[in-house]
Amino acid sequence: MDTPLNIQAVTPLQKRALSYSNTLQHLFNEILSTQSPADRVLAQYFRENKKHGSKDRRIIRETLFALFRWWGWIKKVQIQESDELNWYVQLSLVGLFEKHSWHHIIESWVHFAKLSPVHSSLFLPYLDTAQSFTNDKPESENIDLHSHQTKQAILEQLTALNYPLLDLVPHWAKEMGIFTDENTALLINALSCRPPIWGRAQNINTHKAIEALKEAGIEAKSEPTFSDTIHLGNKNINLNGLPLYNQGYLEIQDLASQVIGHICAPKPHENWWDACSGAGGKSLQLRSLMLQQNPQSSGKIIASDIRHKALEELNKRAKRAKFKGIKTQAWINDELPVQANSFDGVLVDAPCSCIGTWRRNPDLRWISNETVVHDKVPLQIDILNRSAKAVKVGGKLVYATCSLSSLENEEVIKAFLQFNSEYSLDMLSHPFTQEQHDMLTIWPFEADSDGMFVTRMTKNK
């Protein structure tokens, strides 16, 4: 960075805007330099800086994630001689692109940017619409900040550069079997939007859960595809302040992730092994689906992971939900932690590049490279081969990732089937399009969700 300029913050509002700017720049640079996930860095920052109230946290959090969401474009905005002044231009642009409600802060950032009259004449008309972001006043008929075309026009007038849609993802992603002529615009548009929060009702009628959430001030609604799914809106929620969550009646789980449990379709009497359980979101869902069919379900789930802390968290969540029938068994070495040929179903939610979560975690686009895909493929094949040994004849093997790369998905399954002829692919119905597939990808633009891949196989002999 250049030598810091003497930015004059005169009013209390400008001083707040300057403080936010310094904090955001520190966090943004730390994430890029350390390649640490933004949510982890942000959580640590808030733990160490308890001075920030809920409004401060919201401004910092949402602006930080917006910077990463639009970084592929705004990093090219270099209209000032100083990096510091360009930073204020970039902050202002993401505030406008995401229609943030703190427009007075954005106005201060524009002031700090010391824009020329020519640039101001392009920029400020859009800023004037900010006052309508939080009320019902109609915006200018000629300005639609929801549109990528409008954002591109603003940037092109500021810089005289081109801003292709694919610049919003890293260049290496174009070689990972993700983007096609048909899906590029749809996928980029989806990745550029803030994702909603999805949840599941457990041990409670979904309608009653939604009513309880509305009483708590959360505009929740049902989702027609799955009877227990709840849409919780786009705003951050203090889960620990929700009795419904604390009593185990609500679990947070993305809609695309919920598809996996329904593809597994466990029966009440079956025994399932969640081979890569993490903190257990899908283990809890499998048990919930069993209990929905029969409250006296005799089925059992064993959840395994190499991380003991994740399994401890799973146990806490199962206890909160008052679920019996879930046990944990850690992977100790390459040997199966469970008995071979003994499960009605095995779920392998494999470690992956997490490209399907780029909408929710836009920082991952810029702190990762192509090795995050290539390095995972041998591990995925190895885990799938080993886990398949636990399935009994007639049982199901489900493979899933939160990646959109064909290298981690279809190619892994093809490699597995080449040496495991006892398995055959099941035909699956896409829950949102009703199309039939033997290997199913849930795209973020299909269900306002993360991206997921899933396939189910039957062991025939």
Write structural notes for this entry:
It is a single chain. With 461 residues, this protein is of the alpha/beta class. It contains 18 helices and 14 strands. It has helices at residues 12-34, 38-48, 54-74, 83-97, 103-112, 117-128, 148-159, 184-191, 206-215, 243-246, 255-264, 281-293, 308-320, 364-367, 371-374, 376-387, 410-418, 444-447, and strands at residues 198-201, 221-222, 229-231, 250-252, 271-274, 300-303, 326-328, 343-349, 391-401, 423-425, 428-429, 436-437, 440-442, 452-459. The strands form three sheets. Strands 5, 6, 7, 8, 9, 10, 13 and 14 form an eight-stranded mixed sheet that branches. Strand 11 and strand 12 form a beta hairpin. Helix 3 packs across helix 4 (83-97). The longest helix is centred in the first third of the chain and has 23 residues, at 12-34. It is globular and about 75 Å long. The protein starts with 11 loop residues before the first helix and ends with a strand.
